[in-house]
Design a protein that fits this description.
Elements: H1 4-11, H2 13-28, E1 31-35, H3 39-51, E2 55-59, H4 84-95, E3 100-104, H5 110-118, E4 122-125, H6 130-143, E5 147-153, E6 156-162, H7 170-173, H8 190-209, E7 218-223, E8 228-233
Parallel strand pairs: 1-2, 1-4, 2-3, 4-5
Antiparallel strand pairs: 5-6, 6-7, 7-8
Helix pairs in contact: 3-4, 3-8, 5-6
Protein name: Molybdopterin or thiamine biosynthesis adenylyltransferase
Keywords: Membrane, Nucleotidyltransferase, Transferase, Transmembrane, Transmembrane helix
Organism: Fontibacillus panacisegetis
């Protein structure tokens, strides 16, 4: 039988060619929080688990519903009506039993999520509504933790990495909640949310291992219908009520 060390090396053989042993060790010792494990966050969690992060902290409330199944690839049709978080944790352990999984059947509130954010090295925001995204942003600013802000709507994906005191925070970018925002029932194609999730996972891997250049101080957007994309520079709001305190 393979030794544990040899087995681990063999599992990550393909990416060791890219990250090197030092990069893989950094992943192994890292803790990533994924807020939301639907189509976007669930995809990010899958690839982070497959990559061999040491620990995943997951948060998502509620039960699996049939309309989730067009995009939430961590879920299982046989578990409709059951808690999302339990199914997600079970499926992630099947993908990589070496990863420690911690899960919470909760929304993001400041009080509940504070220890989760404090315990993470980097946070991925994959929540579907702005109130929870603002709470997560406030927590990351207070804790000084980087936040991968990934989102999609219809066929468009957007992503930026927020680093407190170095980049604009979410409130800098969106000072007010749009009155036109529809928190539930917005249009989603699974492949679009999956692309956003893959990009978010890549941002976390880059941050943890030090390879490449994270999307800091820029917002990157992709229209998946024609694969056009653009990147715009973003700046901190010097009067921001969140990150300038």
């Amino acid at each position: 039988m393979m030794s544990s060390f040899v087995q681990q090396t063999f599992r990550y053989d393909r990416q060791l060619k890219l990250l090197g042993e030092e990069g893989q060790k950094k992943l192994k010792s890292s803790v990533v929080m994924v807020a939301g494990i639907g189509g976007l966050g669930g995809t990010a969690a899958i690839y982070l688990a497959a990559a061999g992060v040491g620990k995943l902290i997951l948060a998502h409330e509620g039960t699996i519903q049939l309309p989730d199944m067009n995009r939430q690839i961590l879920m299982d049709s046989s578990c409709i009506g059951e808690e999302r978080i339990g199914t997600a944790m079970q499926n992630l352990r099947r993908i990589n039993p070496e990863v420690e999984i911690e899960g919470y059947n909760d929304k993001i509130t400041y009080k509940e999520a504070e220890p989760w954010v404090n315990g993470a090295d980097i946070v991925i925001d994959a929540r579907y509504d702005f109130p929870e995204r603002y709470e997560l942003n406030r927590l990351c600013v207070a804790a000084g933790k980087p936040l991968v802000e990934a989102a999609m709507y219809g066929f468009e994906v957007s992503i930026t990495t927020i680093v407190p005191k170095k980049t604009p925070c979410l409130v800098c970018l969106y000072p007010q909640i749009s009155v036109d925002w529809e928190p539930l029932g917005f249009p989603v194609l699974g492949a679009t949310s999956g692309l956003a999730g893959c990009m978010a996972a890549m941002e976390a891997v880059k941050w943890i291992t030090g390879i490449g250049k994270p999307f800091m101080n820029v917002m990157h957007r992709i229209n998946t219908l024609d694969m056009s994309s653009y990147t715009v520079a973003v700046k901190r709001n010097l009067t921001c009520t969140c990150c300038q305190g």
